[in-house]
């Protein structure tokens, strides 16, 4: 799941954390934790593409 938003994304992830165990889903939670105004501009463009790519690659590698 990809969650996006100022705070809505984290609320969605928290809800799934409670639901997925009941569904016996193969769920490996990990987040890249990209932050508005630090990693991403409000319009969705990258502030530092290399740093974002590293965070996303690390997150994917941990769940693969």
Topology (elements, then pairings):
Elements: H1 8-19, H2 49-63
Short description:
It contains 2 helices and no strands. With 64 residues, the protein is mainly alpha-helical.
Q: Figure out the total of helices.
A: 2
Could you tell me the strand content as a percent range? under 5%
Number of domains: 1
What's the helix-strand series? HH
- What do the pLDDT scores average to? 84
Q: Specify the structural class.
A: mainly alpha
- Taking the alpha carbons of the first and last residues, their distance comes to 14 Å
Most strands sheet: none
Protein architecture, described:
The chain is an all-alpha fold and 64 residues long. The protein has one domain (8-63). Helix content is 42%, strand content 0%. It has two helices and no strands. The chain has helices at residues 8-19, 49-63. The longest helix is centred in the last third of the chain and has 15 residues, at 49-63. The radius of gyration is 13 Å and the shape is flat.
Keywords:
64 residues, mainly alpha
